[in-house]
Amino acid sequence: MQETLHLSSKHSSFPKSHVLHSHHDFSTLSRPRIIHFPTLSSKTSITIPPKPSKSPELPSISPPSSPDPPDPHSQFEEKMLYLDSIGLDLFSLINDHPPIVCASLDNIKSTVDFMYSMGFTALEFCRICGMCPEILNSRVSDIVPVFTFLLREARVDGSDLRRVVNRRPRLLACNVKNRLRPTLYFLQSIGISEVNKHTNLLSCSVEEKLIPRIDYLEKIGFSKRDAVSMVRRFPQLFNHSIKDNLEPKFNYFVVEMGRELRELKEFPQYFSFSLESRIKPRHQCCVEKGVCFPLPIMLKTTEAKFHGRLEVCCNSSGPLRTSPLWCTNCDVNSK
Fold first, then answer.
1. CA–CA distance from 92 to each of 51, 80, 88, 89, 102 (Å)?
2. pLDDT (tens digit, 9 = 90+) per residue, 11-23?
3. Are strands 3-7 and 44-48 parallel, antiparallel or unpaired?
4. Is 61 helix (H, G, I), strand (E, B) or coil?
5. Which residues, in sequence order, are CB contacts of 77 under 8 Å at separation 6+?
6. Helix, strand, or coil here: 200?
């Protein structure tokens, strides 16, 4: 329906500029208005087009409401209660390994269930986590390859698997490709064929731990061949600290005991005995009694047998050169 606006004829004498100005006043409308100027009529009519019919309103669709973000406090409390239920203290674990605070509870539960399915008891698992809390940050998909490696490549017997892991839990936190397999190949390359008897070494870094021990033995006077022979005979040498173990024991061996490198080459187990509670006391006893025992007899025997041998040597003539009690660089009658 159109609306018609009638103007009297007296307004027909408006200046043209005024009409144009009036036209510009309609420029803000959404659709331009059509203006007619009839020439034969005494009135000028302006036709305004009808308003467009209002389109039916569509039902408003509100965007789906996003779920509320998880409450970190609630998640932490749930994780703490779960770990407490299996005998673990979350705060102690965080103190030893802070990233555990971000560990997913679902991943932790999966790891716990998997370890139980492998035959580990709750007590064993708590001990494992105490020694290597990083396990709680590992996924089952990271742990399964370690068990596979130990069984297939390191030749660990299935019945011995739990003992191996309990002895060295850090194995479960090691990457097979970057750590376990390279160490296995290195140990085999220097002649340690039965690595399944020394699985605790598999978690060691070749560059940071194994090679530096061989280099140290060369530094103190052993040839490369002798150094390799010593670690092959006694692979536990790789576990000993150079600064806190090898150096002080070697210095005492050379300076205080005055012995030859040949004896260490034949008995590298010397480095496994305590300097303060075994090596020093027994050496001093030998000095006081004027006796010089070979290293194995001096260190490996029980306390009772050691003192029994001392009494025998003190109450009898000196040992013959063919006797295992004879040491070529010691004078048993020096006192």
1. 76, 11, 8, 5, 15
2. 444 444 444 444 4
3. antiparallel
4. coil
5. none
6. helix
Amino acid letter, 333: N
d(CA 304, CA 68): 72
Backbone angles phi, psi at 18, to 5 degrees: -70, -35
Question: Can you give the pLDDT at residue 133?
Answer: 93
For 213-249, write each residue's pLDDT tens digit. 999 999 999 999 999 999 999 999 999 999 999 999 9
Q: What is the C-alpha separation between 319 and 294, in angstroms, rounded?
A: 12
CB < 8 Å & 24+ apart, contacts of 222-231: 222/261, 222/265, 226/265, 228/190, 228/191, 229/265, 230/264, 230/265, 230/268, 231/190, 231/192, 231/268
Pseudo-torsion of CA 110, 133, 177, 146, nearest 10°?
-50
Average pLDDT over residues 54-81: 64
What does pTM read for this prediction? 0.69
Take residue 166 and report the two structure tokens written for it. 């309990």
Q: DSSP E strands: which ranges in the chain?
A: 3-7, 44-48
Q: What pairs with residue 33 in β-bridges?
A: none
CA distance 41 to 188: 116
Conformational region of residue 186, where left means phi above 0, alpha means psi within -120 to 50, and beta covers everything else: alpha
Beta bridge partners of 45: 6
Neighbours of 249 (CB within 10 A): 19
Angle at 267 between CA 251 and CA 274, to 5 degrees: 55
**Do 117 and 145 touch, CB atoms closer than 8 A?**
no
